[in-house]
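Hi Y.,

Following your request, here is the sequence exactly as I used it, all 718 residues.
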Amino acid sequence: MSANPIFALDIGTRNVIGIVARPDGDRLSILAIAMQEHEERAMRDGQIHDIPKVVRAVRHVKLELERQLGSPLTQVAIAAAGRALQTHRARAKQDVGLENTIDKERLRTLELKAIQDAVGSLRGDDNHCVGYSIVHYYLDGQPITNLEGQRGKQIEVELIATFLPRVVTDSLVAVCHQSGLEVQNLTLEPIAAINAAVPPNMRALNLALIDIGAGTSDIALTQSGTVIAYAMVPQAGDSLTEAIAEAYLLDFIEAERVKHALAGDGAVTFTDVLGLDHTFAAEAIRQHVRPTLEILIKQIAEQIVALNGKAPSAAILIGGGSLFPAIGPMLANALGLPENRVAVRGTEMIKRLDSVPELLAGPMGVTPVGIALAALEAPGFRFLTIYLDNKVINLEDWGHTKVVDALIGAGYNLDELAPKVAKTISLTINGEPKPFPGSPGAHTRILLNGQPTTADAALNDGARITVLRPIPGEEDAPLRVSDIVDLRPVPVVINGLAMDFPPLVKVNGTSIMGDRQLTDGDSLQIDRSVKALMVQAGLTEMPTATLRYWVDGEPREYPLRQIRIAIDGKEGTLETEIRGGETVEASQQLFPHPTVGEVLPPGTNAIALRLNDRPLAVPNPALEIHMDGEAVAVDTPIKDGAQIRRQLGRRMTVADILPLIQDELDGDEGDELLITVDGKFADTSTAITATSLIEVLTDEEGEPDDDEAGATRRARAD
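Below is the corresponding structure, written out as tokens. Let me know if you'd prefer a different format.
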């Protein structure tokens, strides 16, 4: 630990108390102490209302301490009251190697990770983290009191992070800066108080620590070895002062003096705002204040029970407001505790002080000592003062504070720092949608201390940042056809004619010559095909022709006239893209009208036979072909639009096909034939169709002529 003296400053609602202490291990030796009351009511409820007046009080304390020490003070540790306090529990894990001993730096990194998670839960809220308390450490999943010096695979921390509105912390930091002090450490007053008054070895007990100051009553609860909650009641000693002022028509300063005089039982004399003198017994004045005191006690008790779920085992009162008569017994009664379980304690209970100067004795000295102890252990936060575009920004220093943290702290919307891109134009090109983003603007430029930098650059205290806003892109960036397609013509030879061929371009269905500007939603057709080349070459008198007809109700087409394309001697099509330098030959190829027989599917008018185990196809004698309702021969040419149908003209039998295979049977005269139709023996009267499978076998290939064979049908070729 550093042996440099610690300057701790308790900027309270009524007083400013400063101490300078020298660390000696985990103990402190008080070197100097000074105290100054505020002019009038410069602070209320823990919030600074008049910065110049508070600065004067702080400077007075600082100068007095410097006089006592004989050396200047430049850094200070402070604490914020719990006005508008928010708390969040957070956890963080970190994998560590078994070979590494866990040190303070690793623990600090783990704790800051948990705090950043808690900060993330407040994103969008203008709050600062002002301190935290460890709930539990874990080593490889098991609770452990202290991770420092341990070894394991994984460490984890659970903590309570406390947050206050930026206005509270910014005003405190501003007071310090205007007093010539850099904030070395900032924590929360109840955190500072409990660190001083309730050391870890006492936190196994269910205790409530109540710091009753002038403007706020801060609460901290312990149980099972840790701090379990922090809270704040926005009333304290000033509410009692105000009750006295109202009851006896006193200004605030005179009422404050009367309140302090109520500690005794004698008479109290004072002068009201009308100049009249009064003398009252202290007990009579206390009775006037009692209703206000009961309200304060009730609010403190209700807050404790709400957080703790029940009354604690004991309560410790600190702070100047705890000195008001009967406050301890009244709180004990409100909590249902014996009176001896609620005690007012002071710096005498702090075991880590070597000695207690008289000015620091009592309950008012606990918080400034706690602030010094917090700075010694560094559980609070150091603040950086950053000048951003001539605006002062106070940032918690996480150890790696960056330019982007200052931008966020200044309220910059980071999206606004990105260059604005001009409007996107959406086009349809050859049927496909395609967006064209507008021109981007210039990026944001950031200067750190006058030099170009990035958002990730680290910051030091006093850094000066200048943000040069982005330049927006052109709102209507011009987009032309030439930005989409190369309009330059390319050389090509077609049918011996050399020419320059530009692409054929249509915008919204209209052909264009040359270039033109495009607008959002335009549709482009870009054609570099052979077909477009032929149009530009004047070869439009080469139409194609197609014969259309139907066979048994199915549409068919047959080319009568086609364009034949050859590109550099190889076959091409009308859709082939021209790139430049090609030699194209385009010619017409003519075809005669086909006959009916040419367009019928192969085998349409044939019957499949097998003769002596070999295939044989013969014409179908019963097949008739009709074109447009009239019977035609197979060599009849087809007319355009013809309806062709096939049908059998009569019933067909085996006898119809025997004459058709007579030539195949020559030389086999006298042989007996065996005929099967679709695998079954048949005779000449057996019916067949165009799809029947007929087999004809000579007797030599058939079965022997036995009784079974004699029973089969046979036929002899006629």
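The CA atoms of residues 337 and 405 lie 48 Å apart.

Thanks again,
Q.
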